[in-house]
Structure formats: structure tokens, C-alpha cells
Amino acid sequence: MMQGKNRLFAHTALDIIPVLAGVAHLLFVWGLIVFYADRPLWLNLLLGVIYAISISWNINGVSHNFIHNPYFAKPWMNKAFSLVESLAIGFSQIFYHWVHVRHHIGNSDVPDSNGNSIDWLSIYRHGRNGKPESVWNYTFLSFFRDDLGEIYRSIKRKSKFNAAWGRFELYAFIASVIIGLLYDWQAMLFFLPFYYLGHCLSSLNGYYEHLNGNPALPIAWGVSSYNRLYNVLWFGNGYHAEHHYRPRTHWTKIHALHQQIAAQQREAGVHVIATCHALGFLARSNRMAQPKG
Fold first, then answer.
1. What Å distances lie between residue 197 and 3, 27, 172, CA to CA?
2. Which of 127, 128, 286, 141 has the alpha carbon at shortest distance from 213?
3. Rounded to an integer, what distance in angstroms lies between the CA atom of residue 56 and that of residue 25?
4. Residue 148 in 3-state DSSP?
5. Given the DSSP bridges, would you call strands 272-273 and 224-225 parallel, antiparallel or unpaired?
6. Which of 47, 77, 191, 242 has the lowest tally of Cβ within 10 angstroms?
7. What 3-state DSSP class applies to 188?
8. CB count, 10 Å around CB of 26?
9. Contact in structure between 142 and 120 (CB atoms under 8 Å)
10. pTM for this one?
């Protein structure tokens, strides 16, 4: 895409791929409800599992990259896509943006003497004695830990418009839920557990993005996976140590960054797993390593 005042994309025309993926995800979610009654139970169960995985995929791929490098050159187009993402993942993209920025400020920090961590998503935040909490607690309880009121107030202190837009995204999602219930309440209730499971899978993904990382060493804040298929489908999310070291690196350039700093990473002992992050419990390197607190 040519650079210029009227260009569509802010960085590269390749961003059309995650944009279309986000739109396709929203259409998939709507299709789950609209055609629910026309499908057999076994197919709805299978699609429910795919739906759960798709939530984590979007949050950690499309939505995540959108936070760090907004896809469009025009602000109103980014706000429109933010709404698309909010409806697809079932949570305000603006609110998620704020939580994720705190994540990068704290970088999964260990709580201070008062038990507070900068990073609300830190795997150490609810742990004990400077150790990560259990993967079970982190995976299944993180969904309930966001303080929406505090998120809204914090955003409002910096931008009243963004705070209002984030609240609008939440209202739009609630409205879509109400419409869905009116259209087919059985379908909505059927997929509700899969919605929760999807956000749990996102938390599971986040847990292994930092388990055995080093909170005291910037180049080793994150844990990386260089599984090729994972990085293609998740838009480079496997390069998580690289991402925390240089958060503004575009997803199309993250592999090149890895090649540039690979020697430094080996010297610093950056933790690497062979599986995708969500399957980190299967990674041999995780079983062998001692968590760094």
C-alpha cells in the first residue's frame, strides 16, 4: 500500500489479513446463533469448541496486534474496527487495550511488599511468596477479576472520548446479547459456557507466555514459541519474548527482530517452548525448568 495522506492502512497492506479475520470471526459468531436450530447437536458441540478457541485466537492475535499497531490510517476506521472486535470477543476492545497496556508497563511483575503488582494480568499477582499462582486458578478465575469501574475511570482520566467509546462497546455487546436471546435464547444459553471457556483459554495462553520468564530482565520478560504454524495462524504471537522487549514491532517484522537479537536472547537465557502457548503444559522445557520468581 502506498504511503500518503489517503492511504487505507497505517503500516502495511498485509494488515488486510487480520482485519478480514476479525470480520470473519464476528460473522462466525453471529452464524452460530442464526443457524443453531438447523444443526445437529454434535455439530453445535464441535462449533462450540471452535468458538472457544476462536476467542483466544482473536484476543491473542487480531485484537492484540491491533492494540500495538492500529491497522488503519484514519482514526474513525480504527474505532469502527474496535467495535467489530468488541462484538466478536465479547468484551470492549478499548477496555482490553487499557488492561494490556498495564500488562506491558508491569511485564508480569512480582507484587511489591503491599501485595500490589502494576500488571493486572501478572501470573504472580495472586501467587504466594513471589511464585506464580497455579495454572488452574489463573485460567479459570482471571475472567472474573477485571474491575470494569476502575478500568473506565482510568481511561477517562486520559481520554473522555475513549472512555465513552469503551462504554459504548460494552453496551453494544450487551445489546447484541439481548437481540440474540430474543432471536433464539436456547442457542445463546448453549454457547454461553463456550464463551467463558474461550476467555479461559486466553488466560491459559497468557499464563504460559510468562511462566519461567524472568520478570527482572527485559529481554527475557516473555516466553517464546517458534512453532511455525502457531505463528502463522496467531499472527506472530509465539514471539512473545521479542514482543515484550520491543512491543511496537509489527507482526510482519517480529521474526526479523528475533533474528537480530537471537544471540542476546541465548545469553540471557530466554525461555523457549516447542508448543503453542496454550499447550505450554505439554512443553518439555516447562517441565524441566524451575519457575523464576
1. 41, 19, 22
2. 286
3. 11
4. helix
5. parallel
6. 77
7. helix
8. 18
9. no
10. 0.93
Q: Are 285 and 274 in contact (CB under 8 A)?
A: yes
SS3 272: strand
Tell me: the pLDDT tens digits for 12-56? Answer: 999 999 999 999 999 999 999 999 999 999 999 999 999 999 999
d(CA 20, CA 62): 10
Strand, helix or coil for residue 101: helix
Residue 293 has pLDDT above 80, yes or no: no
Contacts of 65 (CB under 8 A, 6+ apart): 18, 235, 236, 250, 251
Measured distance CA(123)–CA(78) in Å, rounded: 30
Helix boundaries (H) for the chain = 16-34, 41-57, 64-68, 75-89, 93-106, 135-141, 148-158, 160-208, 228-233, 240-245, 254-268, 284-288
